[in-house]
Specification:
Serine Protease, Human Cytomegalovirus Protease, Chain A, alpha+beta, 9 strands
């Protein structure tokens, strides 16, 4: 299944303002995934496991009291678009455990939408995704611009206005409960 049909199955709508990495501004090209080994749920030969989901949801406080605003990723995604850099897919935010690559990433009205591919190093994650035991998504970032806000519970939180994203992770417990994998292929 190619990226376009995978996206169509997931949402029925094309991604607005999508970034398919790497590419040029004039001619977007599908992102090559570096040195993918084949992987299947049984660990044998076959296609690498792909998934789609949200690594962040807009306008909802997470467990750390951060609220991500629409447009917070815009600058960072534009930089990725121009540079052609590929975001790694990590296991539980561990930089020493890369399990795949992010093929597609974009902001939509709901949040930060991602399509990722697990490579041969992600066999355990693939099994857990397939069995429904692992569904959490998260992202590693550096805050560029934020401000303190009062949340609905009258406690202070942080509004993230501009962030620099540097990885996406499959996690057991996402900081934002609704940040989940929604489709596996």
């Amino acid at each position: 299944m190619n990226l376009q049909s995978f996206n169509a199955v997931w949402s029925g709508l094309p991604l607005a303002n999508a970034v398919t990495m790497p590419n040029t501004l004039a001619t977007p090209k599908p992102m090559p995934v570096p040195a993918l080994e084949s992987s299947s749920l049984s660990g044998g030969a076959g296609a690498a496991l792909r998934f789609a989901g949200y690594a962040a949801l807009f306008d909802r406080p997470d467990a750390g009291r951060d609220v991500i605003r629409r447009g917070a990723f815009r600058r960072s995604l534009a930089v990725l678009h121009v540079s052609g850099d590929v975001l790694p897919l990590l296991w539980q935010h561990r930089p020493d455990q890369r399990i795949g690559w992010v093929e597609h990433i974009a902001e939509d009205e709901r949040g930060l939408r991602v399509i990722g591919r697990l490579d041969g190093t992600g066999a355990l994650a693939a099994r857990q995704l397939h069995d429904g035991r692992l569904t959490g998504l998260s992202f590693g970032f550096r805050t560029v611009d934020s401000r303190i806000v009062t949340l609905p519970d009258r406690r202070n939180g942080r509004e993230l206005i501009d962030v620099e994203i540097f990885e996406v992770s499959l996690v057991g417990r996402p900081m934002q409960h609704g940040a989940r994998v929604h489709l596996i292929s």
